[in-house]
Design goal:
- By secondary structure, this protein is an alpha/beta fold.
- It is built from 16 helices and 9 strands.
- β2 and β3 form a beta hairpin.
- The two termini are 22 Å apart.
- The chain binds coproporphyrinogen I.
- The site of coproporphyrinogen I has 22 residues, from β3.
Length: 343
Amino acid sequence: MAEPHPFLAACRREKTPYTPVWLMRQAGRHMEEYRKLRAEYSFLDLCKRSDLAAEITVAPVQKLGVDAAILFADILLVLEPMGLGLEYSKDDGPVIRAQIRSRTDVEELNDFEPQTELSFVFETVRKARAALDGKVPLIGFAGAPFTLASYIVEGGGSRNYLKTKKLIYSDPGAWKALMERLATVIAKYLNAQIAAGAEAVQIFDSWAGCLSPADYQRYVLPYTRAAIAAITPGTPVIHFSTGTAGMLKLVREAGGDAIGVDWRVHLDEAWAAVGHDVGIQGNLDPAVLLAKPKEIRSRVEEILNRAGGRPGHIFNLGHGVFPETPVDNVTAMVKAVHELSAR
Ligand code: 1CP
């Protein structure tokens, strides 16, 4: 039988010859290949052109030497078929047209079949798998219910999430209806990615850290747990969030085979908090990739030391790679992880 790939083995907390590494947002704006295509096509057009999206998915594997590919898509793509109206403005990031303020607004959201309405995503998965040819596994992904809900309620990105929190506190029934709807959509969408060939999936709860642990427990955890529980068994799930160092036990309770953490917590402390019976992913500050290769190498070593060679560590950044990151620094990081963790 062929050796399982180090990334998938680490997701199952099996021993690997070295610590596998990939980068969140590795398929994006720091890559010259991406910027070239982006000069010609809008972001949404790139997502919908599965041949180009597959090409962008595969490019970092060849160029950076990472141990996994991540599907080129976006967490917000599900909002369009829900009837919310999605645009990416040039400078301000995503803009969502509809305003969800009540239970009636939630009830008016479209029910949709990802298989038909987001077929371009699954086409990308199939094409990327074919192009990867078994070299490294392909990770699918979706936003977590809270992070998606925050975009829907705010109408875009946010600093303080005041509209979202106001809805939670003033109309918990509407919030529950929205979160239940999103949990269902996310599970269906991820299962369709898995059916098309995604070999692991990551749930991004990028903005959960704006909440108190009590609010997370009450208004977020049950829905993330429902989404994760409905994912096709046997496919590893990475549950990522940022700013959640004070509530990692709760994050873990929501589920996931590996928990993704940011750099605001020591990796060994985070792992102890979530328990050694799950894997851990992280957690280099993405800003370190703006430093010189020597400094990058020593920061990589610190994190590997904290992981202590324990099976189940997937090396990654603590959040997405910055667009201004020099590609040579990324390759230096990947090389350092492979060399310093070789066993
Ligand atoms: O202008 C452009 O070229 C578009 C930039 C861009 C890209 C490259 C956006 C808009 N999305 C993406 C791709 C993307 N998004 C991937 C594909 C894989 C990869 O790049 O390697 C993934 C995994 C995401 C996930 C995503 N989108 C998250 C979760 C991860 C994270 O960084 O926290 C979030 C929050 C989004 C929303 C989003 N999409 C795009 C932007 C600029 C944003 C963030 C806006 C904000 O700050 O609120």
